[in-house]
Amino acid sequence: MRTRERLVQRLREQGISNEAVLDRIRTVPRHIFVDEALASRAYEDTALPIGFGQTISQPYIVARMSEALLEGGPLEKVLEVGTGCGYQTAVLSSLVGKIYTIERIEALLERAKLRIKELQLRNVRFKHGDGYEGWSLGAPYDGILVAAAPLSVPESLLAQLAVGGRLVMPVGGEGRQQLLRLTRTEEGVTREILGAVSFVPLQSGTIQA
Predict the structure, then answer these.
(1) What are the chain's domains?
(2) Taking the complete model, does pTM exceed 0.85, yes or no?
């Protein structure tokens, strides 16, 4: 637990102040989401490979995106685009009502399902699909979090955002990505830039196991 406390302290120093988010970083066992060979590095504030050219985001980014999504009030229904290994899903699970999470790589999705089940998190629904299309069945969403970077904001995701809802996502090409928060209002969409980030690109299509 000391390594987790050190990580939480580091995140505080980097400006994360939402206590509920920090508590999830403290309690979610990140080591079960990474390869056994990398388990000793699980509580470093760094991204790690999870296979298929994908990574588990660094804890700071997971905490920053969660905090940005939650600012402005509680969220009942959240869409996560890019389940990956399921770590961000697990962090968010007790902070929101329900999570609909979509992943294009079936093998990653199946692995994430096992981890989420192991943690007995029961408010998560999974889909193997194209993140660009979102998940219209559950729409509209109070929050959408995207864990990979398209070159521009997909209109299909904006269309699935409820009025008052918030979309947090990286946008831009390699080396030029910005983390954005878009909020849907009655009049349209407001856009905030939250800082420079580095994510894998958001890709279309699906990959079968």
Answers:
(1) 2-196 (3.40.50.150)
(2) yes
Q: Please enumerate, as own/partner, the contacts of 67-72 that have beta carbons within 8 Å and a separation of 24 or more.
A: 67/16, 67/17, 67/18, 67/21, 68/166, 68/168, 68/179, 68/181, 68/194, 69/143, 69/145, 69/166, 69/168, 69/181, 70/18, 70/20, 70/21, 70/95, 70/96, 70/143, 71/18, 71/166, 72/166, 72/183
Q: Tally Cβ neighbours within 10 Å of residue 139.
A: 18
Decide: helix, strand or coil at residue 171: strand
Query: Using CA atoms, how far apart are residues 130 and 136, in angstroms rounded to an integer?
Result: 12
Report yes or no: 109 and 128 within 8 Å, Cβ to Cβ: yes
Task: Examine residue 140 and say whether the peptide bond preceding it is cis (omega within 30 degrees of 0).
Answer: yes
- In order along its 209 residues, the chain shows pLDDT tens digits of 789 999 999 999 999 999 999 999 999 999 999 998 999 999 999 999 999 989 999 999 999 999 999 998 999 999 999 999 999 999 999 999 999 999 999 999 999 999 999 999 999 999 999 999 999 999 999 999 999 999 999 999 999 999 999 999 999 998 999 999 999 999 999 999 999 999 999 999 999 96
Active-site positions read: 57
